[in-house]
Design goal:
It is built from 5 helices and no strands. The chain is mainly alpha-helical and 90 residues long. The protein is globular, with a radius of gyration of 13 Å.
Length: 90
């Protein structure tokens, strides 16, 4: 099995995080301040240079005012509809 960070699903997750942040009207610096992390942490997450775990995912969604359970459930459902977990990111 390949590392998930190299999959189309992880690429979609990163895109969703950026979209949620932007919809909340937050810059990367704004979100970083809410999370008490360096702004480079947010930039690296969105660029795929830093992998996040489920706890960090929940923190990111919450800081953007999004219900983490709903957002995560929606993402997982999209991944399930997308087929194989072996696809590489484009």
């Amino acid at each position: 099995m390949q590392k998930s960070v190299h999959t189309k699903e992880y690429k979609a997750l990163r895109a969703e995080l950026r979209s949620v942040r932007e919809a909340a009207g937050l810059s990367q610096r704004d979100l970083a301040a809410k999370l008490d992390v360096p702004h480079s942490w947010v930039a690296k997450v969105e660029a795929g240079e830093r992998r996040i775990d489920v706890v960090e995912l929940a923190w990111l969604f919450a800081a953007c005012g999004v219900d983490a359970a709903t957002a995560t459930s929606s993402l997982v459902a999209r991944f399930a509809r997308g087929g194989s977990h072996k696809g590489r990111a484009s």
